[in-house]
Amino acid sequence: VQLVESGGGLVQAGGSLRLTCAASGFAFGDRAISWFRQAPGKEREVVSCMDNFDGSTYYADSVKGRFTISADNAKDTTYLQMNSLKPEDAGVYFCAADMLACSDYGSSGPKAAGMDFWGKGTLVTVSS
Description:
The chain has 128 residues and is mostly beta strands. Helices cover 0% and strands 48% of the residues. It has no helices and 11 strands. The protein has strands at residues 2-6, 9-12, 17-24, 32-38, 45-51, 57-59, 67-72, 77-82, 91-98, 117-118, 122-127. Strands 2, 4, 5, 6, 9, 10 and 11 form a 7-stranded mixed β-sheet that branches. β7 (67-72) and β8 form a beta hairpin. The chain is globular and about 40 Å long.
């Protein structure tokens, strides 16, 4: 099983980045893929989630209207389009795979402790 993130980098506030999570080694269509982020000294927090089996999505309140999650099931790849980036969006972004649906975690979204597989992360830096 492997999850590989890419697309991070340095961007000015207000700019955009597109993160990619390439999956292999498991049935991509049977899993939910979540994006988490972790800033220095802070806990890992969920950003967004997509159920590959029905396309339903979840977004943290802090990114609603700015971030969009999508997937290409034929390529076993999930994307996170991040627009109008803010300095507080900076951190290491991880993708993770889970058997549970995004909605199974309730209104606060997926929990890091519940994920089955993790990527190594990609760093996003937002300059003010």
